[in-house]
Amino acid sequence: MKEKDHLLNNGFTTIDNIYTAKEVEKIINQINQANTDKDTFRKSSDLFAIRQFLKEVPSTLDTILNDNLRKILTELFGKNYFSVKSIYFDKPASSNWYVSYHQDLTISVDKKTELPGFAFWTVKQNQFAVQPPTEILENIVTVRIHLDDTDQENGALKVIPGSHLKSIYRPESINWATETEVSCNVLKGGIMLMKPLLLHRSGRTTNNKQRRVIHIEFSNIELPEGLNWSEIINLN
Questions:
Q1: Is residue 112 part of a domain?
Q2: Max CA distance (Å), the chain
Q3: Number of domain units in the chain
Q4: Per the domain annotation, does 108 fall within a domain?
Q5: Of 50, 55, 40, nearest to 233 (Cα)?
Q6: Does 183 fall in a domain?
Q7: Alpha-carbon dihedral of residues 48, 54, 56, 61, nearest 10 degrees?
Q8: Among residues 4, 22, 34, 51, which one has the least CA distance to residue 147?
Q9: DSSP letter at 188?
Q10: What's the CA gap between 77 and 55, in Å, rounded?
Q11: Which residues contact 222 (CB under 8 A, 6 or more apart)?
């Protein structure tokens, strides 16, 4: 699987035609029917987001986990994979929301527990997050499901290939004499796979087109005794 090699070496890859137009519309309709009054829903003029997405909109799960995605996950993890975090983002056509370069350094867990190697605890909306040892981050793969055509004019991720291999890589230390930036354009119904330690950013929308993405993180390792993933959903 050439996409797997690209993911391991560069920290990301894109694959088109994972979902049909009918499947995409079904997912969008299910999202539109969800109850948006809960604390896990965030609404502003620049962003609509649903945290713990698979828990809040479970009707989407069968469509999201179609044969195409299951085949990819099995290639990456075998049959013992599970989801550990999920978020839905809707960046409106008029959005000027911008995110600077960063790595995804935290995981969502069920409670705060003092354990070696786990640091920088935070809690938002009763959701605990912590930075775990790097080997846990290195095991995770993020799948970004694109419900709209996405390019650099409506917020496609910009990434620095290979930066995930440098462990914790502070954005202020990026050496642009040696690093390059790539725009991860994805067609509607396609996906982007990425490693959490990959440096990435997204720009403002400039073409008046919407960008809707479902962000799901997958793993196949359990956390140390006394700590659990907060959103774990077994998929087999």
A1: no
A2: 48
A3: 1
A4: no
A5: 55
A6: yes
A7: 110
A8: 22
A9: T
A10: 22
A11: none
Angstrom distance (rounded) from CA 95 to CA 140:
29
What tens digit of pLDDT does each residue of 180-200 get? 999 999 999 999 999 999 999
Q: What does the pLDDT look like over 144-161, one tens digit per residue?
A: 999 999 998 888 999 999
Does position 229 have pLDDT exceeding 50, yes or no?
A: yes
Distance, CA of 83 to CA of 63 (rounded, Å): 15
Distance between CA 211 and CA 34 in Å, rounded?
19
Per the CB < 8 A criterion, the answer to whether 188 and 154 are in contact is no
Helix axis angle for 2-10 and 67-77, nearest 10°, is 60
**What pTM did the predictor assign?**
0.93
Tokens of 110: 């069920």
Query: Does residue 87 form part of some domain?
Result: yes
Structural domain containing residue 194: 2-103+140-220
Identify the H or E element spanning 30: helix 21-32
CB of 12 within 8 A of CB of 198? Answer: yes
Residue 43 has a CB neighbour count (10 Å cut-off) of 10
Residues 222-229: contacts with CB within 8 Å, 24+ apart? 223/109, 223/132, 223/136, 224/115, 226/113, 226/115, 227/109, 227/110, 227/111, 227/113, 227/115, 227/118, 228/109, 228/110, 228/111, 229/82, 229/84, 229/85, 229/107, 229/108, 229/109, 229/110
Q: State both tokens at 62.
A: 């069968």
Contact between 142 and 194 under an 8 Å Cβ cutoff? The reply is: yes
CATH code of the domain in which 180 resides: 2.60.120.620
Q: Residue 51 is encoded by which pair of tokens?
A: 């945290």
